[in-house]
Amino acid sequence: MGGEPRNWRNYWLYKWHRIRRSYSYILGIVALTVVGALLRLLRLDWQPLWWDEGYSVYFATEPLARMAWLTAHDIHPPLYFALAHGWVSSLDWYGPVAFRLLSVVVALPAIPLTARLARHLLPSRSSAPLLAAALVAFNPMHLFYSQEVRMYGLALTLSLAATLALFNYAQRIQSGRPARRAALIYALWAGLSLYTLYYSGFLLVAHALWLLYTDSRAAGRLRLAPFLPFVLLLALYLPWLLYAGPKLITYVESKIVADEDTPLSLPIYLWRHGLAYMGGHLAAPERWLELARHIGLLAPLGAGLYTLFNRSRPAAPDHPQISAAAWFLLIPLSLGYLVNLVYPFFPVGGERLLFLILPYALLLFIAGLLHMRQPIWRTLALLVLGISMLTGIGTFFTIERYVNEDYRPLIRTVLEKGREQDAVLAIFPWQIGYWRAYTPRHNGDWLPPQPAPLNQDFLVWDAALARRIDRALLHGTLWFPAPLGFGSTLPHEIETHLRTVAANAHDGWISPTTRLSAWTQPAADGTASSSMPVGPLSIGPVTLQTAQLPRAPLSAENTPLNLHLQWHVSNPEDQYRVQIDLHDSQSGHRWASRAYQPLGHYSPAAPADSTAASAATENSVASEHIALLIPLGTPPGEYDIDLRVTPVITPADTLLPSQSAPPADIPDADTTENITAVTIGSVNIITPPADSTAGAAAIALRLPGVWQAGGPFGLGQAQPTTTAGLRLWSAIADALPARPLLAGTSLAATLYLSVEEAPPPATTLSLELRTADGTQGGTTLAATTTWPLPHHPPQTWQPGAIIAAPMTLFVPGYVASATDYVLWGGITTPDAATLQPLAIVAVHQRSHTFNAPPTWGEPLAAPF
Fold first, then answer.
1. Rg of the Cα atoms in the chain
2. What's CA 300's distance to the chain center, in Å?
3. Which DSSP state fits 108?
4. Could you tell me which residues come within 8 angstroms of residue 508 by beta carbon, excluding any fewer than 6 positions away?
5. What backbone phi and psi angles, to 5 degrees, belong to 477?
6. String of DSSP letters for 141-153
7. pLDDT digit string, tens, across residues 705-750
8. Which of 404, 651, 716, 860 could form a disulfide with 710 if both were Cys (CB 3.0 to 4.6 A apart)?
């Protein structure tokens, strides 16, 4: 009895230590998971989508039945796309951040699951789970695929769950306990991983071989029990295998031929995977940083060599368990290498296909690390690996990727200048995914125009495609984002056909590999008339023989103004630049403008890549169909159409069209302002119908120009405001996107308004440039108050119609350089002024340098 209190005391002390260690372990894993989540949520909206992510968005936004059909013809199974479909549908949020947030959610459980796996494989190493969780949380490759709109993060999470279920099943059958439920759980996790990524099958083969080996070794004979979970797995996966298997083989064979990849040698194959697992697969921008990323390979290599050659330390008791990680790493790597030899498909970043074996590589590294006797060697190995991982993380968050695949400017251009009846011709399905991810939604659907879903067949030029293009032109403008970086002749053939049947309304390079063009049906005979002065008209160095303009009024909703121009060029070898303006003779404002070169570029007789005036015919006559889009918000009235023609001094082969050249729609040069414009006719602009969707598209896109408190620099997106019966929808500072404003020049801005009720007669619009001293104040540096549309009073506007009001604010030359000035604007009445912050303005002060002239050696004796 005397020793009983001591026994109870020891018992409760033992329990307390177990509970404390358990809570410390749980809190550590939770903390690492939270840190990993915060790291993965950083800059979700920074990088643009790239091709594979565009495919993911396209598949996920199709109906489920069609999505299953599409993925059966693709290289990846449907589970991730089905989850993404349900995710964005339930959120009613289809932007890139929504899709990337899903990738974060499904990839994050890999951190605690890897810790659980380390606890099972290294039970005698109490620090192994926390170390494993930390290595996954800060692994650059896992960080990458936690934000990528692809299935690799989900495949890793599901495969980890399958591995843990496999160990549970193995323990049950070896201990003689009931294992049918455990077999079913494993089959479910393994089946889900196979429905996510075909390469998961390589890990499942390793599971099967390891289970057969360990069970037969423990039982002394081969039993049927290890086959049960895989029989269940086959039953779960067989329907999809029968449905998609033949299509997958056909797809892979055609892809191998199209991509023309070559097999990797074994050293290169292993080096690329090891480098990606330790330092990520993004190359660093500097050579010394890239060397730091490669240093990470020394950590697992050193740990492995130390374990191999250090025989002085007895073998760790965890050897039988940790050997499973070697099975699950080496067998998938070997099978992947064999597939690489037979079907060589290994593009940049191809290590992602075996991303799901990353935890086993990290666990083997941890085992070797903990086998080291001297702490200095452990610290050195962790330091080397940490340098590599931090380099990979820094590269991930600081280097812009997919610049050439950034479709945001392209889609913004189409939606701002397009109409509901317009069509978009998309060659690849990923282009449709881009549109759906970046297009604002209105009344539950994407704003038009939208590209129509296509099948997965590779498009070639034929009569059927030509008829489809011709039908689209009958309804509205056809927008064609031509991807020119794939070596296909299809974009060239499409543009050649469009040049012969349509008038060009837009043509410009969006990126070094993508050109956006717009085409509209030319005016039919009888609907156009010659509006130019009688007889040929000399414009600069060329002669305009005839010009046909539309006779009917045009609606101010991005309606094309079709022009048929016939030129006479005295010397076909010369090159000329043509500028077309829509000009308001009363206010002097230019409402629309486009420039292109060379003259004759859009002649039906010219090739698609013509870069010289030799596109004209032998008698030196070039006939062109050109269109000018009437911008939304152009006030109703009569407008002049002006032409400027100037010689091209710079050789055309450096201007049109190349991957590093400006677009065919060339921005207005300062020199053209001094060239006299010739008016060739006029056009009547009318207000668009009240139900026009072009207004909704422009409003949705341009609303970010109107700000309120809470965003960057204290400003954020706001709703439209109404003052004195006028609603201010948005404000676009025309000079802001190009470059910072130079002090002593004018800032051009356009306010978009609509009338809800007649405002007071003395209503005006105001612009002010203020210092960034808060959204409620700031020192005013420049201001203007006027009504910029004296010939278009609001009393004549139709209710709800969008009207653009151009304004100019002169910024004095004494304004100091700063990047956070705030442009304020709004509606002013005799009683009050309602101004709000519109945009952030950067101003650069002019730099003045003075060099003193040289002085004479002797002073001049000059009498005055």
1. 34
2. 35
3. T
4. 413, 515, 516, 517, 663, 664, 665
5. -75, 140
6. HHHHHHHSSSSHH
7. 443 333 333 333 456 778 888 888 776 655 454 467 888 888 888 8
8. 716
